[in-house]
Batch of 4 targets.
Target 1
Amino acid sequence: MAPRLVLEGIYTPLITPFDATGAIDYPALSALIERLVDAGVHGVISGGSTGENYAETVEERLELAAFIVKQTAGRLPVIVGTGAMRTADSIALARGARDMGAEAILLGTPPYSVPTERENALNALAIDRAADLPIILYNYPGRMSVEMGREFLDRVGRSRNVIGIKESSGDINRVHLLARDYPHIQMSCGMDDQALEFFAWGARSWICAGSNFLPEEHVYLYKTCVIEGDFAKGRRIMSAMLPLMRVLEQGGKFIQCVKHGVETTGLSAGRMRPPLLGLNKDEKRELEQVIRTLKCTLAAIKEGN
């Protein structure tokens, strides 16, 4: 049996920097990883949707993951995303994660096929058997069109490898369900504007794309709520972060905003791969203003103002 991974802290689903030709920019990715290590994040995720996995081949995703495992060099746990339309591709990614020494895999519902709960569970268990690694489930019905409901959780929850779930439904009742009825599956926040609620209900980790460019700020909220248990201050921090979350989600340009956020830190994120395009000047200006205000407000809170 694979060792149990404790989900604790901020986990960054890494962007994939691309150069002017559209190739993966490994020096830029290396610089980003070092920045996140220095900032104190608690783990990184390779091959998530924030990393534009839908625009990459299985071979590219395995190469990326292997690079990230090598770059982190045991300083942070690496979780490898296995999301794919074909089960065979997910199995290849899961086996690759095992062979390269990743700590866990992130396992979502195959998009587009709209499986039943039983079909989805059997698919997940097939990937589990192939990897024998700790598994973090990924419930995101807004993108996958399928909920990981009770039947699914009852089936896959029997595997001792299923140790957590990134809950991205946006339905607060799911938080209640997971906390009360599935306490053996560690709950991780996957819906940024509900981070405070997740922490209040016992979640001890947050998988947040915004930590690509604001890692210290995300760590600050986690430490305030989870480590210090100061939800009064946590509400002030969360209130300051909500405008950022609204900008990230508006107009369906989430990944574009995250990439431009990375650019504002002086690191290179590069272009988007088709079919997506980057932000226009007005969108960039709005995001930059929100980031400046957020940083200023959180600095004041840290100073006790």
Note: The chain is about 50% helix and 10% strand.
Target 2
Amino acid sequence: MKTIGLLYGGASTEHSVSCVTALGVYSAIDRAKYRVIPIGITQSGRFVHHPIDPNWKLADLPTVPEDAPSIALTPGSRVVTVGGNDVELDLVFPLLHGPNGEDGSVQGLIQLLGLPYVGNGVLASALAMEKSKAKGVFRDAGLAVAPEIVIERTNYSLDPDRELLRAQQFMQGDVFVKPSRSGSSVGVTLVKEQSELKAAIELALSLDQTALVEQRIYGREVECAVLEEPSGELRLSLAGEIVVTGREFYDFEAKYLDGGADLLVPTNLSSEQLAQMHQLAIKAFRALGCSGLARTDFFLTDSGFVLTEVNTMPGFTPISMYPSLFAATGVSYGELVETLIATGLARGTDPR
């Protein structure tokens, strides 16, 4: 029986989302095949042993307690010390969202431990999280993305008037201002008037070193999921669509708390549109060097598909978009979890 370390929580604004994701995966793992060791990361960054709570709900904003017993990790060793006992892991299943989890940092730590893990490697994770860099990769691959300018925190602090003027000159119509490395729309502002730019930029820069001022794209917000088999073959889901209700865009509250959006799974695309979306999703997946899984997000405009982002650890609760897309395609939640584990084990300690 192989032993899996289920890594969740994390020092990011998406800590609670990760906790609820961990509950879904923990409940789906085949206990006849795998022993599961929950490894929580507190909001301060401590690695602790804390059991998955079956009553966790996102509305309650669950957290990993700071006073839970520590877990000891040793670089170059697959052995972790849990409650005074040494446990040898065969695989780590990271379920961390946002900075300090989905950005390559934890993936690098797992590699230093010499352990296989589920999902994307260091480079793909870091690139996908850093939207300003990912967009350059996507453009080089021939993928359409929204026009943007980048504002660095250092440049803004040295000359805010100059950076605000750049943003004002770029702004032709509505723009989104966002931290370059945020997830789940944390710190994202829809700006309709130039007078709103300063506050939006400063909010984004309070959360990251880099802010994007990005042209608003109008169209249908559509997504598809990518799953890598142990053989390396990619499976693509049917398309889903986000229809926002009662607010202007798909923000954190709409995603997780108040039901401010309808998720249409599957949604209505022509066979030609779906085939094109699949081709673009594969191209984006390969351009970043992804492995394991990803959710690819697009706007379908009058001129075609515009890539929004590639999410390397999408929401993974049983009702999240990624599992829902594959459920509509005929792949159950349990099958997704098993495939990801098998692919991580097959890849071994040589991630892309």
Note: The two ends are 26 Å apart (CA to CA).
Target 3
Amino acid sequence: MSLNDELTAFFRARSGEIPAAAREVMERTDRELAASGQAGRALNVGATAPRFGLPAADGTTVTLDALLADGPVVLTFYRGAWCPFCNLALRALQQQLGEIAARGAQLVAVSPQIPDESLTLTEKHDLAFPVLSDIGCDTAKQYGLSFDLPEDLAAVYDSFGFDLQRVNGGHPHTLPVPAAYVIDRDATIRWAFIDTDYKTRAEPSDILAALDGLI
């Protein structure tokens, strides 16, 4: 089963558990974000990847320059550990970590969560790649991925107990559009996946194919 087949199955199994009023808000705001042109404004193939230095779950600072010094980088942006679709996507990437490394590349994930939340996520899912904290989504903004939740959607997330005020370090309404990039050693983006639909993610097999294209 592909990752997106798994995500679709999960959504179908769980959507009936969401109250109708909350589901209406979520569906409407999803349509509005898609219509906003956000995905089209994000950095894409051929652009130079903005440099960053972000804290990892283990307390170290990870920079894009240091990663690129060792080879290509697979960079993925996710919403947070509270998002089950993000968790499924990260686990799928973990399963392909050996294949990514075999191609001389490194994988790194970025979310707006505080380092303690990243550490909990890393330990829970046995992630063996850096999980970085982009509090306030400053790095996501440089990639054109940052957006603010509408008030009614933020209220729905509050009702679900996600506590984004705490886990996002005082920036509860700002999230990244989920995205994945393959960045060559010269910092050029060679492959990109950006989709405002949080239920759709980059297939690990497509990432591996993009890495193969660099060789």
Note: The chain has one domain: 3-212.
Target 4
Amino acid sequence: MNAAAPSSSRTFPDGFRWGVATSSYQVEGAWDEDGKGPSIWDTYAHTPGNVKNDDNADVANDHYHRYVEDVALMKDLNANAYRFSVAWPRIFPEGGGKPNRPGLDFYDRLVDELLGAGIEPFATLYHWDLPQALQDRYGGWQRKETAQAFADYAGYVAEQLGDRVKHYFTINEFASFVEGGYQGLDVQVGGGRTVHLGAAPGLRLSDADLKQVRHHAVLGHGLAVQAIRARGPAGTKVGFAENIRVGVPVLDTPEHVKAAETATRDRNAGFMTVLLEGRYTEEYLASAGGRTPTFTDEELQVIASPLDFVGINVYKPGWYLEPSDEPPGYRDIPVNASHPKMGASWHVLDPEVMYWAPRHMRSIWGAESIFITENGSAASDAVADDGRVYDSDRVMFLRACLAQLQRATAEGVPVHGYFHWSAQDNFEWGDGYGTRFGLVHVDFDTLERTPKLSAEWFRAAARANRVV
């Protein structure tokens, strides 16, 4: 055997994007500068008790003022793509109406800086920072008017940036902002206690009302796809970025794989399944006593507007599955109490999810172009006496996950890029600044940036286009 064969077998396809990702609220800061209106996360984080240590993102990483430095850091990582989000209330402080030109100017400068560094911009249009004005006016995504306002905003951004930004993700993680913001989650913690985890806008709707919010969110996506195609230049590409709930088969046998695929389709019914199939499953419609959502056939056609790619955020398995002779044809296998976890308490470790998630996207829905829009891990990052950050656990995580992703591409699964979450430590929603996901360490007192050991791994892997 040729001595080079083991290395070449770990190589990704030509043209593979090695990217990093952030979101506007988590890194930009400048929360009320240059005409920006308040977002629901500004309001939520300014309310005592909602965020750990009462942290907020008024300054965050100050990326709004330090984007030149941050782009230089990305270039040093050999990243050739950057997924960022546009802050809707920077563009339309009232959610619609007259655009705020200084807000758009920031993204003009950022895009130009990226292109000058040889980094391809990928824009996300909604990463949860809804203009507060729309929450006040319509109850946010509780009303269809917000979906239409989102489409108007999306079309405007594609029109203004489309000469340089060719890829748009409409909405990031439908399930996260809908379930977290409009109902919240009850999670068991140590000592048998249950805590309620919420997110902006911090509502607790009924199951039936929540289904209607889900529908308005996917409708907003479909309307935005149509607006981007209508107003963006020819060749503009559009998709979504969803945190797929992945069923992992206990055994890699046809029966177990079929059980995992069936569960994955069923348990993504409120978002992924309707987005890609244009219909709600009968089981989903029967849930919550059969009440809601109210929709039309025309809306379902809009929701399923053809896409150029799909983005999936992949962190952990949703469930382990085995086949069952009883409906629905699969059975959950509980995750053992001693199962290894990463730095965040919710982050069950299984690198194979990076194989099964894109494989399911192809086998269930026939996806022809897939991006891993988020993958990463929290770690107990600290600056050592010699000034370095030795996040060996994140290096282990990256090597293991990327090996499984490479396995998928070697089998012909059409994954065209990987975006690591995140480019640098940032405001981590309800956890504030205590949970770090970045390849670059940020001292939130001085805002000094320090690339970690994982940044060295990413730099080498991106340069070689393979697992190193």
Note: Confidence is low (pLDDT under 50) at residues 1-7.
